[in-house]
Amino acid sequence: MLSTYQFPENFLWGGAIAANQTEGAHLEDGKGLTSVDLLPTGKKRWDVMLGKLDQLTPIEGEFYPSHEAIDFYHRYKEDVTLFAEMGFKSLRVSIAWSRIFPNGDDETPNEAGLAFYDALFGELLKHGIEPVVTIAHFDVPVHLIEKYGSWRSRQLVSFFETYAKTIFERYKDKVTYWMTFNEINMLLHLPYVGAGLVFEEGEDQEQVKYQAAHHQLIASALAVKAAWEINPKFKVGCMLAAGMTYPYTCNPDDIAEAMNVDRESFFFIDVQARGEYPGYAKRFFKEKDLSIVMEPGDEELLREYTVDYIGFSYYASRATSTDPKVLENQTSGNVFGSVSNPYLEKSEWGWTIDPKGFRITANQLYDRYQKPLFVVENGLGAIDEVTEIGEIHDDYRIDYLRQHIEQMGEAIEDGVDIIGYTSWGPIDIVSASTGEMKKRYGYIYVDKDNDGQGTLNRTRKKSFYWYKKVIESNGQDLESL
């Protein structure tokens, strides 16, 4: 059955990956140690992600999945060929900051790192695939954490600006679409992952997080400024971990609580897209006795250099309540806690499956900002079984994606301007939240397990052929194979 909606001509169908979850080669060709290289699997992972462990060197006996990941650093040509076979129009990737500046504050960049991304972008363009590049995807050089305290320090703004200018100049003829910080609102929930923050005993963590947020927002504005000056054709976006929050009931208290939960994330994009701190944030700072230190000119920078588009991830909606009994029934979803929604199913990892919430979220963002949207992450993490003859029948993934793409089409019919759709994990990669390999998102199976064992061989899943058909029909043919 053909759909009743039309996706725009030149819609950027594709997939999305991150350097730290795919590349491996964690200290190869001059790359420095980065924050994600210190995330082990197992129980200690969450303590590190929350900024509770001050451990800035790998611990002997722990397994760090980013160190090899899926070896994209050496196998990218093979993988790009597979993406091209599916007909990708775009691939969202990130640049590893510590490949370009191993320590973060180096005077000169690492040529070997720059050359790798030259080669990667060249390979993509050879196959007609548009690179969509995230500048910082949960990635801070460890030296900047050790010496400066990471984004709690204003000095990181300058280092980030230098890094951004370096890659803008180098790739100004290869890349058009950029994003500054991946899921910038994650800073509040996983402060080490989002901003490399490690907390000292007794300090005001809220104060540290929001000061770090201000530094990232200024860095983002300076990146927009540099991008426009280096190549006026550049399009620079922000990136939000999105998913609207439903009030559990029509009790006005629940509705107000849902509004406040959403504003916690919208705060970042309000500044990046609208150019100023919103009134509700100022009230929050006042009531929490938080004092955000600003330098002269900061407000002008934020006002003048807003983003060109809104990138966002969507995996699940959320729900909240003011009833303590309701709050006891929690589920998970992309790190954000949520009241379990009785109307919706959940994934194997407890993430709410809500395709219609995707349409609602897209409308919510477009109504709020009136800027083009780019869906840069959406997908289903699931356990895949390989048959005796080496096939992977992931119909559950096809069903999930089909329903979400249908709702994206409905959002476009609603009048929402959407640039493209890069589903998360077109190839199996290391899970950002758990460090697992068994939590698979890809159309391409990678032979590797949670302990790092396997051949790393790539195998096309059933969804590979389905997504190829979706792209060929520009979203018109979503039927299962």
UniProtKB/TrEMBL annotation:
Gene Ontology MF terms: beta-glucosidase activity
Pfam family, one: Glyco_hydro_1
PANTHER family: 6-PHOSPHO-BETA-GLUCOSIDASE, GLYCOSYL HYDROLASE
One biological process term in Gene Ontology: carbohydrate catabolic process
Species name: Halalkalibacter hemicellulosilyticusJCM 9152
Keyword Hydrolase attached: yes
Keywords annotated in UniProt: Glycosidase, Hydrolase
Superkingdom of source: Bacteria
GO cellular component: cytosol
Gene3D superfamilies xrefs: Glycosidases (3.20.20.80)
Active site: 377 (nucleophile)
PROSITE patterns reported for this sequence: GLYCOSYL_HYDROL_F1_1 (PS00572), GLYCOSYL_HYDROL_F1_2 (PS00653)
Family classification: Belongs to the glycosyl hydrolase 1 family.
Full protein name: Beta-glucosidase
